[in-house]
């Protein structure tokens, strides 16, 4: 396919994605009702699309090294597909991302029982976590000097078993050419509660329908991981990864390291699903990761102010129909979910994820794309 044909095919995909823009239906969030639609922000040849269902990133489109517009995010064409999604494509997950052992925790002397949705454990906030609810569109500036969109959600006391009312927000903004800023905030209105939001985009810098990401190079600025048991629940240990299969301290092919992993448990696909401890002290912005695709020349650099990042290689995807007729299989993407440590509420040695009315939550990510710049 020549360059013009590729651009035309991409334009057709985008047009299909935007048929029905606005209000195909309504979703009830407890006592609140929000309409669900698609939204776009754009600056030059850099464009992003979202849905307020789960405050999800639907597409990230930029030119590759040859000038071909490339969508580097897995996703769907229609709202209905997002409503039925089980993979959290592009979502803001919470109130507490990742796993909580036994679907319970004790805070200030009170035992809180959550709704389990991963065996006996809770993952990504429960069966009706933030990624499975309609958020309010608070602000939408589609273009201009600072294109941006802000989504908000009011999580009531007792939501999925969590204590207290929480107001959460996420702002996606284009600040520089080919740079995306993601700003996640949350405020506890009346009770202390755990909050740990994560952005769950599935990245493939070769293009969302290009196959697997095993040949992409990854560097992680993280010297340790939080070890887990056979159910992927943290043991409480923080272990060094130097010279192991988990070692991405230098740029390495994802597939090469993945093939060094031990045999997976029965029913699981070999791959990464691990929380890395980001190097560096304090709560300021830190280098997290660099990903590079040789075919497109697209390089993605990630910075964040979180203590951890979940490396996930989309192990369980199988025959998943996505945008433009693409079919996603295992290892079709890499997720880099900056976050607090999983199950931190049950491990006093982990950085606290507790938010109070006087101590709000603020989690920022800088995602910068370049072409023909390696490591």
Helices and strands in order:
Blueprint: H1 3-18, E1 26-29, E2 32-35, E3 38-43, E4 46-51, E5 56-63, E6 69-71, H2 79-83, E7 91-93, E8 99-100, E9 104-107, E10 110-113, E11 122-123, E12 136-141, E13 148-155, E14 166-176, E15 179-188, E16 193-194, E17 198-200, E18 217-220, E19 222-228, E20 234-240, E21 252-253, H3 254-258, E22 273-278, E23 286-292, E24 298-304, E25 308-312, E26 320-321, E27 327-328, E28 335-339, E29 354-355, E30 361-371
- For the termini, the CA-CA separation is 30 Å
Q: What kind of sheet is the major sheet?
A: 9 strands, antiparallel
Number of continuous helical runs: 3
The helicity comes to: under 10%
What is the CA-atom radius of gyration, in angstroms? 20 Å
Question: What does the average pLDDT come to?
Answer: 92
**How are the strands ordered across the major sheet?**
12-13-14-15-30-24-23-18-21
Strand content: 35-45%
Write structural notes for this entry:
- The protein is mostly beta strands.
- 7% of the residues lie in helices and 41% in strands.
- It has a nine-stranded antiparallel sheet with strand order 12-13-14-15-30-24-23-18-21. It has a five-stranded antiparallel sheet with strand order 20-19-22-25-28, with no helix packed on it. Strands 3-4-5-6 form a four-stranded antiparallel sheet, covered by helices on one side.
- The chain is globular, with a radius of gyration of 20 Å.
- Mean pLDDT is 92; it is low at 1-25.
Short description:
With 375 residues, the protein is mainly beta.
């Amino acid at each position: 396919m020549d360059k013009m044909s590729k651009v035309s095919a991409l334009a057709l995909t985008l047009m299909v994605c935007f048929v029905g823009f606005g209000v195909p239906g309504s979703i009830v969030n407890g006592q609140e009702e929000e309409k669900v639609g698609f939204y776009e922000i754009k600056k030059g040849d850099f464009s992003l699309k979202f849905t307020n269902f789960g405050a999800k990133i639907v597409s990230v489109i930029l030119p590759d090294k040859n000038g071909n517009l490339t969508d580097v995010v897995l996703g769907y064409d229609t709202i209905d597909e997002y409503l039925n999604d089980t993979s959290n494509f592009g979502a803001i997950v919470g109130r507490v991302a990742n796993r909580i052992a036994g679907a319970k925790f004790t805070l200030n002397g009170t035992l809180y029982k959550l709704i389990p949705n991963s065996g006996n454990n809770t993952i990504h906030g429960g069966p009706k976590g933030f990624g499975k609810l309609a958020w309010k569109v608070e602000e939408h500036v589609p273009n201009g000097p600072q294109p941006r969109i802000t989504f908000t959600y009011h999580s009531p006391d007792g939501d999925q078993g969590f204590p207290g009312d929480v107001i959460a927000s996420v702002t996606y903004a284009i600040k520089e050419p080919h740079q995306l800023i993601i700003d996640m905030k949350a405020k506890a209105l009346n009770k202390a509660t755990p909050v740990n939001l994560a952005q769950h985009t599935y990245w493939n810098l070769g293009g969302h329908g290009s196959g697997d990401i095993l040949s992409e190079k990854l560097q992680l600025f993280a010297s340790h991981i939080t070890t887990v048991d056979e159910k992927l629940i943290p043991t409480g240990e923080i272990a060094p990864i130097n010279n192991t299969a988990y070692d991405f301290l230098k740029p390495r092919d994802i597939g090469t390291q993945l093939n060094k992993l031990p045999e997976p448990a029965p029913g699981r696909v070999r791959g990464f699903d691990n929380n890395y401890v980001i190097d560096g002290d304090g709560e300021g912005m830190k280098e997290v990761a660099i990903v590079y695709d040789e075919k497109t020349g697209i390089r993605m650099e990630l910075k964040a102010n979180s203590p951890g990042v979940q490396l996930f290689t989309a192990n369980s995807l199988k025959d998943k129909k996505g945008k433009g007729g693409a079919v996603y299989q295992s290892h079709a993407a890499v997720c880099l979910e900056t976050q607090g440590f999983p199950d931190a509420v049950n491990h006093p040695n982990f950085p606290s994820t507790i938010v109070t009315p006087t101590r709000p939550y603020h989690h920022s990510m800088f995602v910068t794309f370049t072409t023909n710049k390696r490591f």
